[in-house]
Design a protein that fits this description.
The chain is an alpha/beta fold. The protein contains seven helices and ten strands.
Length: 254
């Protein structure tokens, strides 16, 4: 594995010999509805300010009727809303590889976890998403790349702008294996999403579980937000604080 320069074709994709198959099958049991709802984001470095975190929190609060905890995994908690539960981001990670820490058992995340990138805009009710409706107990949910304009050269892959899981222990090896081999792995694996592709077999997809609930800004939302869409994604440029469309000023706010 560690000599691979690129991923094998997805139809025959192998996984790291070091990382065991952490996702052999989907459990048929639904996620426990008594588990707390956790919304998690990651903020590192200078690209995203505390404003992004606080606006995401406000967006979730406006568009759910469910009680939830809001966590931010960060290296700098300055100016975060007091209601944000801060998780310390370990040192030594570069770029968005820090997302790997979401799966560390040391974080103590217990519940129905929904990770959301900071550059997402919530525009309508997301109760069904936060409650993990239709998500198996041991399920792992994220985006399929096909619907993203910027990912057309990577069709059929994974995009981690949203991730859902509840079994922290089951997916801990995503973190544990990479923590011990980070420098070697990142010589040959360019993105965290590729690491997930190598380690998570048969993930479920946001687009299938919540049809029409999300949309790529560039592909579908430049003029307005389609009626059924509740989350607009900005995986590359532009970003929400560029205000490329007037409708963004009405919804991306505290």
């Amino acid at each position: 594995f560690f000599l691979m320069i690129r991923r094998p074709p997805r139809s025959t994709q192998s996984r790291s010999s070091a990382a065991s198959d952490v996702y052999k099958r989907q459990e048929v049991d639904s996620t426990d509805e008594t588990l707390p709802i956790n919304v998690v984001c990651v903020k590192w470095g200078k690209r995203y300010s505390a404003t992004y975190v606080n606006i995401l929190l406000a967006g979730v609060a406006r568009h759910t009727t469910l009680p939830f905890n809001f966590y931010c995994l960060t290296d700098d908690p300055t100016d975060l809303d007091p209601s944000v539960k801060v998780l310390s981001l370990e040192e030594g990670w570069t770029g968005w590889w820090g997302k790997t820490c979401l799966f560390s058992e040391k974080l103590g995340l217990k519940g129905r976890n929904t990770y959301i990138d900071l550059d997402m805009i919530i525009t309508a009710n997301i109760d069904d998403m936060l409650s993990h409706k239709n998500v198996p107990r041991d399920g792992f949910v994220l985006f399929r790349t096909d619907d993203f304009f910027c990912e057309q050269s990577n069709r059929g892959g994974y995009n981690s702008s949203i991730i859902q899981w509840s079994n922290q222990k089951k997916f801990a090896q995503i973190y544990e294996v990479l923590r011990g081999s980070f420098e070697v792995v990142t010589k040959y694996v360019m993105r965290f999403d590729y690491w997930l592709e190598m380690n998570i077999k048969n993930a479920l997809f946001v687009q299938d579980l919540y049809p029409e609930k999300t949309a790529d800004y560039v592909s579908r939302c430049k003029e307005s937000v389609p009626e059924k869409v509740a989350i607009v994604c900005f995986p590359r440029l532009p970003k929400p604080d560029d205000f490329p469309s007037e409708w963004i000023r009405d919804v991306w706010k505290l």
